[in-house]
Write a structure and sequence with these properties.
It is a single chain. The chain is of the alpha+beta class. It contains 9 helices and 4 strands; from the N terminus they run H-H-H-H-H-H-H-H-E-E-E-E-H. It has helices spanning 2-5, 11-23, 37-45, 54-61, 68-75, 78-81, 91-108, 114-124, 175-184; strands spanning 129-135, 138-147, 151-158, 167-171. It has a 4-stranded antiparallel sheet, with helices on both faces. Helix 7 (91-108) crosses helix 8 (114-124). The chain is globular, with a radius of gyration of 17 Å.
Length: 187
């Protein structure tokens, strides 16, 4: 297809093309007929890339090895349907820092800083424990993570609307929230 052969070679162009190829949906949510195999084809056509080599190809090769996230991506789960995630400089980053960071740092030590909070959110957003969730009336994609071995942390990204893909909030989930999320994950 045209997207696979004429990819914008910037990082965002590559990310958007990968999302389209992996999810079967373009950035506007229109259905396209590009199965996950399209990701491998795209990677093989990137300059300086040889399928099976380089960080992008390596990531695709490991899709089956990343647990729930890999299976979810292959099945078209919410994980795959979330737009590119934006964290830095967002209202959600500032909101979550103002509302929830003090609790995290009080429980787990350290001096609160927006940079540390952003890194925590970035770490948690890589979790393969991904569920459809909500904050208020907004649909979100939530990532439940264990940070530093055993500390639960939950980060949500807007699923729809003008802020789709942007961090909505992040916080320490309570026991009932953790239980509900794990139930959704079948764990």
């Amino acid at each position: 297809g045209a997207v696979l052969t004429a990819v914008d070679q910037t990082p965002i162009g590559i990310a958007l093309a990968l999302r389209e190829a992996a999810t079967g949906s373009d950035i506007q949510g229109n259905g396209v007929s590009r199965p996950l195999a399209g990701v491998r084809l795209l990677l093989s056509r990137l300059p300086g890339s040889r399928f099976g080599g380089g960080p992008l190809a390596s990531a695709v090769n490991k899709l089956d090895d990343i647990g729930d996230g890999g299976r979810a991506l292959a099945k078209g789960h919410a994980f795959a349907k979330t737009p590119i995630r934006r964290i830095a400089g967002t209202r959600g980053l500032q909101h979550s820092f103002d509302s929830h960071a003090a609790e995290w740092f009080a429980r787990h030590g350290g001096t609160p800083s927006l940079d540390k909070w952003q890194k925590l959110i970035e770490t948690a957003s890589r979790s393969s424990k991904v569920v459809d969730w909500s904050t208020g009336a907004d649909k979100t994609i939530g990532h439940l993570a264990r940070v530093d071995g055993n500390k639960w942390f939950f980060v949500q990204f807007f699923k729809e609307g003008p802020r789709a893909g942007e961090v909505a909030t992040a916080f320490i989930p309570n026991k009932d929230q953790v239980r509900a999320i794990l139930d959704l994950l079948g764990k």
